[in-house]
Amino acid sequence: MDGLHSTITLNNGVKMPRFGLGVWKTDNHTSRDSVATAIRNGYLGIDTARQYGNEQGTGAGIKLGLEQSGLKRSDLFVTTKLYNGEQGDYDQVSRAFENQLKDLGLDYVDLYLMHWPVDKTYLESYHAMERLYREGKIRAIGVSNFDNDRMKNLLDEAEIVPAVNQMEFNPTNQEHEILEFDRSHKIEMTAWSPLGGGASLTNPVIETLAKKYGRSTAQIILRWEWQRNIITVVKSTHGKRIIQNSQIFNFSLSAEDVQQINKLDQGKRALWYDDFQWHNPKGAFANSIAQWSDTKK
């Protein structure tokens, strides 16, 4: 199946949608509206995180979207992530997870990811996630932002191979070595920032292909990622764009045009370990969700 309901089978047999909506940098109210719009228009994959500060809004959007679409909870695939500041032993991680379920208004999540590999805690935290998985409130577990060294360390210690590694992936950052290593261990890659933070939308190669195919530059990039077999979660807060982003299934890029985009890789990451304060005291992002402000409306 080639469409919004297309799935990929993870290494534990769970089927995950190959295309979904992300809600990074959106407040609770915007998340609610975006998620409900996406579900009404055929999206089955929803991706959020504790660090985004919008799990309550995402949960409200899921509830509203299900009511408006007539779908059941089991029709959706909901991903959230263990917050960096709540990593630790089983008691700490399980307490954090239960609070996330409460905020989301859900009895379970389909995929629970470790948001970043905080060096002092990621192994202990992953063992806690393995235990939560065995307890049945998580259908699959995985990680995010793991380079190959940290992934090797994790695989040496883990009892359950991560189902997913969510990485920044876009035309200028294609993570060849990480993608190859993960796939060799049956770990699927999910793309965050699939449009390169918007920068790839104005790339001359992408613009030329958009004219050639009569598509938006975003649609060209998302179709390229689809043909690269990368699971993709794309953020938008605009209803028309949420719909437009999903309209990539009635055309294909030629093999030559896929290669054109492949050649755009520059290995440029928007964020990496040194950007965060627990690695670098001068880093741009604190170990806090305070930056994700929200106001009542």
Automatic annotation (TrEMBL):
Q: Which keywords accompany this UniProt record?
A: NADP, Oxidoreductase
First and last residue of the signal peptide: none
Q: Name one Pfam family in it.
A: Aldo_ket_red
Q: Which domain of life is it from?
A: Bacteria
Locate the residues binding substrate: H115
Residue ranges crossing the lipid bilayer per the database entry: none
For this protein, the record's PROSITE patterns field holds: ALDOKETO_REDUCTASE_2, ALDOKETO_REDUCTASE_3
Looking at the UniProt record, the site noted as Lowers pKa of active site Tyr sits at: K81
InterPro entries reported for this sequence:
AKR (IPR020471), Aldo/ket_reductase_CS (IPR018170), NAD(P)_OxRdtase_dom_sf (IPR036812), NADP_OxRdtase_dom (IPR023210)
Keyword Oxidoreductase set for record: yes
What name does the UniProt record give this protein? Methylglyoxal reductase
Which organism's genome codes for this protein?
Liquorilactobacillus mali KCTC 3596 = DSM 20444
